[in-house]
Amino acid sequence: MIINLAHKIELNPNNKQANFLARACGVSRFTYNWGLAEWKKQYEAGLKPTGFGLKKEFNAIKKDLFPWIMESPRDANSQPFVDLQTAFNNFFKGKSGYPVFKKKGQNDSFYIANDKFEIDCKKIRIPKIGWIRLKESLNLSGKILSGTVSRIADKWFVSINLSMEITPPTFKNQVVVGVDLGVKHLAVLSNGEQIEGTKPHKNLLDKLRRLNKALSRKVKESKNWLKSKFKLSKLHARIANIRKDALHKLTTKLVQEFDVIGIEDLNVSGMVKNHKLAGSILDMGFSEFRRQLEYKSVIAGVKIVVTDRFFPSSKMCSRCGNVKSYLTLSDRVYCCNNCGFRLDRDFNAAINLKNIAVGSTVSACGLISSGTAKLVAA
User: Fold this and answer.
1) Alpha-carbon gap, residue 239 to 233, rounded angstroms
2) 71: which DSSP letter?
3) pLDDT of 5
């Protein structure tokens, strides 16, 4: 089996190299914004612009009008036209909104083709700058497809995209578990184990508010404003790292200990419309949990059975199968009206998800007859 994976490694540049990387990000941002402005201009004039056509026009004028662009790697002013074409393709297909201009300090990055850079142990060679130290070596083996250099707060990273051929292990004993995600606990397993959520945004909310308040009092674009904005971006990065660390530990634990994992297809975008719970839901990172679990399960050869989002996992009794007509979020203990069974509601839901996963493993195609679950990874 061939899969594509990316390994994100922190760079350790000196001041000169960091300035070069910042200029390359600026070139990429400028090129994208130039292409978007030109696209709008040509479209309003009745023409049909394309990313490739805009690239040819830009290449014809960049040496004369924008000579400073030549100081950065070529891909920094070439790839943005491919990204722009992709953005409009997604817009026309209804997958995303209309492309917007990029802002300095937001998603600063630039692309490097696989034949333009070289990795040697704990260093990488980038065109027009040379070798930059890495905080760690590339621990994945495969064909390198591309690289992307990006900045998060005060740190620089390079994401190496590789094509890897893997042979997932086969399991004789199918150890099944159901996983119920929630806001009280990050996850409750069908074996009774509870995984506490780190809740980094909630825990650091007071500090976040202080820094936001301090930023609002500064004169925009002043030195003190930039310092305050820098502190705020570092805190946001810290919150994201704490959340991702907890999710990586949980998903790695699941794929290492179990062969079949039953989860629920949560409608996160619909759940966050409840403003009382939106903050807690986003702080847990349900979507990131799903993303990590799916790609790790492919490598480990673990089956992921996703139950339909309308399946009443919380309302159904895991003992007799009776479904309650009404259950509020404040009801933390499930009490069955039919058999009198009492159990923690999240534990009860996890058992129901496990039962669905057990039933799905009977079918060779990975689908159970009721159509309430599907196999997304094996």
Assistant:
1) 10
2) G
3) 85
User: What local confidence, expressed as pLDDT, does residue 378 receive?
Assistant: 54
Using the predicted structure, report yes or no on whether residue 362 has a pLDDT greater than 60.
Answer: no
Spatial separation of the C-alpha atoms in residues 47 and 41, rounded to whole Å = 9
Amino acid of residue 209:
R
Q: What is the pLDDT of residue 250?
A: 93
The domains located in the chain, with CATH, are: 2-165 (no CATH), 176-377 (3.30.420)
Residue with tokens 């995600």: 181
Listed residue (177, 119, 151, 138) closest to 26, CA to CA? 151
Work out the burial of residue 213: count CB atoms within 10 Å of its CB; fewer than 13 is exposed, 13-18 middle, 19 or more buried.
exposed
On whether the pTM is more than 0.90, the answer is no
Q: Which two tokens stand for residue 2?
A: 């061939």
User: What sign does the dihedral 282-286-289-295 (CA atoms) show?
Assistant: negative
Q: What is the mean pLDDT of the chain?
A: 87
Amino acid letter for position 315: K
- Three-class DSSP labels, 229-283: HHHHHHHHHHHHHHHHHHHHHHHHHHHHHCCEEEEECCCHHHHCCCCCCHHHHHH
User: CB–CB of 351/318 below 8 Å?
Assistant: yes
CB 307 within 8 A of CB 265: yes
Active site residues: 180, 264, 346
| CA gap 133, 164 in Å, rounded | 24
Question: Region 23-27: what's the mean pLDDT?
Answer: 95
